[in-house]
Structures are given as structure tokens and as C-alpha cells.
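Minutes, structural biology subgroup

Action item carried over from last meeting: produce the C-alpha cell record for U-box domain-containing protein (Solanum pinnatisectum). EB confirmed the sequence was re-checked against the source entry. Recorded below for completeness.
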Amino acid sequence: MDLGASDSYTTADFGDNIPQTASSSSVYEILLLIQSDDLTLKVQAAREIRRLTKSSKHYRRYFSNAVKSLVHMLHSNSFESKEAALLALLNLAVKDERNKISIINAGALEPIICFLQSENSTLQDHATASLLTLSASSVTKPIISASCVIPRLVDVLRQGSSQAKVDAVMALYNLATYQGNLNLILQTEPIHFIVDLLKSCKKSSKAAEKCTALIESLVCYEEGRTAVTSEGGGVLAVVEVLESGSLQTREHAVGALLTMCQSDRCKYRETILKEGVIPGLLELTVQGTSKSQTKAQTLLRLLRDTPYPNSELEPDTLENIVSNIICQIDGEEQLGKTKEMLAEMVQISMEQSLRHLQQRALVCTPADLSISSFKES
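Output recorded by EB:
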């Protein structure tokens, strides 16, 4: 890059983040370009910042001084200027808490939120990705939450591109962890769009995990439970995750179903049962996370005729619980699959117990030998 008067700058002009290395000259040049009055040069510099910060935490620190100039570019009438600045800011914010805060403090939030409503799908996509990144900070969540961004993100979830919808639901998940935001999210009536996304995405994906996590949080409220059960295929979408989701996604799914059943067993028991939930729950009891296993067993108990043991003659074992439920299931296909899963569950449980005993034997053997040797001596 040829700046002409490149020998006129000093490190004092840009703070203490500039590296004292052979590459420092190019960093200075880019920082000068981003402050230029020439829009073409500013765009060039923003693109270079984006390139260099894509995978380098060091460059994210070096170019933190460019934040104010990049935010100023967001107000330009030029699409190229907006896009270049937005992408540079996005990369600067990735895994850098200080840059996230600086970007918010520099006034980036207002134009970014405006871009969510842009007719230009590219700007909308980049803005949604930026909000996803910025909302990952516990410091910025209260500021973003106060900016009325939640309805805008739900709008993106309603009519954005495929990638924008994924980024929007993940941003909503980030914001949902801040106090009071779940009520705000519920008020926007997002369940239909969350369920739609869950139906269409791969069940083991990060998007499915965040969709299911959001549903688990929202069904803590009566409005959320009503919305999920009223949505065509809403409960089924959650049940399907039990069989093909990631471990974390399945944990959220069983948590959502358990919350519903615990809130009003009589109201939700049949709704959950008829969607074929038993095979997925059986699998979770032996192959899920420790939390999933506990939740799955608790839900199975709630799904039978009575959630309490019938008698002392019929122990409250998982096999007896499931056998009780099998008697209530309609449909040969579902009944057959459930019986098959029960047999498989018992087999897996026995194999795990055997492996546990073998491991204990291996651990105990050296100790036993040493004791024997000690006695013989």
C-alpha cells in the first residue's frame, strides 16, 4: 500500500496495541487508510482488516483502534462501505470481549438493527451474524436487550434467509439468558418460527440445539406450552430430536417434555405419548447424559397410568414402568418399535453392568496381589 506520507505517523497516534514487528508498518498503513477522507481507501482498509482478523486474535487487538472509524462507515450511503465495515466489525468482535464492548459503545447497535429491516438481504444477513456475535457477551446483553432488538430478530426468523434464521435463533438464545427477556421473546409469538426451523434443520446441528433450548425455556410459561401444543407438529418436532439429536440437544428436548408433563400431567401426557416418545426416552435412559437419563426416567414414570408404584408385587423398575405404558399405546408399528427398544435397553444395560464389573475386577486385581504378596512375605 502506498500512502505517500506514510512516514508521518507514530505509535502514539494509535495507542498501545500496535505490534513492534516487521508487520507493524502495514498495520499503521491500514489504520491511516481507515481514517482517510477517501471512501474507496476506507473500504479497502476495512476489507483488509476483515481479512487479517478472520483467524487472528492478535490482529483483533491491533485493529481495535479502527472500531470508531468502522462504525462511522455504517452510516454511509454506500452499500460497499456498509458491507465492508460490518464484516470488519464482525471479525473484530469474534472471541474478543473488549472489542464487543467497544463496538457497542461506539454506537454500532443502531445502524446494525436498522440493517435487520433492510430490503438488502446481504446486509440483513451480516447484521444478524453481527448481533449473534455481540450478544454472546454478558456485558453487552443488557444493552442489546434494551434496544428493542428482540422483535426484529423474530422478524428475521419469520422471513430471513436460511442462514439468517439460524443466526437469529442463536442470538435469541443468547439474549434469553438475560433476566426478563424470556417474557419479551414470548410476547413476539416466536414458537411457530422456532418449530419451523427445528423441523427443517439437521437434528444434530447447533441450530437444532438452540431451537430446542429456547423451547425448553419458553415452555416454563403457560403461553409457551400452549403455543407448542397448538403448533402443528410442535410436540412431534421435539420428540424427533430425542432419537437423532446431539447429546446436548436431546437433553434440552427431554427437559422441555418433562417441564410440560410436570406442569399439568393430565393435560400433556396423552399429547406427548401419541407422538411416539417412548423409544427415544428408552434410548436416553442408557445412552444420554446423566441429566438426560434422570429426566427420561422421571418422564417415563409420569407417562404411565399412574406416576406411582402400583403395588409391592410390581417393583417400580424401568421395565415395569415401560410395560405399563406399552399397554396404552395404539398402533402396531409404534408398539413393535417400543418393545424392540425395551429389549435393546435391557441388553445395553446388562452390557454396561458387565463392563463395569470387569473394570472393577481389573482395578482390584493389582491391590489384591500386593496384599497377598505382603502376607506371604
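Discussion: Residues 332-376 form the longest helix (45 residues).
Next step: EB to file the record with the rest of the batch.
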